[in-house]
Write a structure and sequence with these properties.
Helices cover 76% and strands 0% of the residues. The protein is mostly helical and 105 residues long. The protein has one domain. Helix 1 packs antiparallel against helix 2. 13% of the residues are buried.
């Protein structure tokens, strides 16, 4: 792994961390359309799932760019990436449903 590969990897981790938290930090629908009413938790989950697939596609593109091909991944890989994306989303989720109420207090 060269220095640029390591930079790509850390940049991807940071982008994934930001993407996992965006649904809980924004009131806009899919970050482009203003919401007339506050977004529901289920809609935020739909946005989160969409961003999981978008960041996954970015990851596949980076893999193809760095190695020249996309390797086969089994169900275990995807299970681990979903779990990691859930962990990445915890700060935004905690802010939305717990911390924000305390800060406005």
């Amino acid at each position: 792994m060269s220095v640029s590969d390591g930079a790509f990897t850390w940049t991807y981790v940071i982008v994934s961390l930001i993407a996992a938290n965006l649904p809980w930090l924004s009131e806009r629908r899919f970050f482009a359309f203003p919401a007339r009413t506050p977004k529901s938790a289920s809609f935020r989950l739909l946005e989160w799932l969409t961003l999981y697939f978008v960041t996954g596609a970015i990851g596949l593109g980076l893999e193809h760019q760095m190695t020249g091909e996309i390797y086969h991944k089994g169900w275990v890989f995807y299970t681990v990436t979903v779990a990691l994306f859930i962990v990445f989303a915890m700060p935004g989720f905690i802010y939305r449903y717990d911390l924000r109420k305390l800060l406005r207090g």
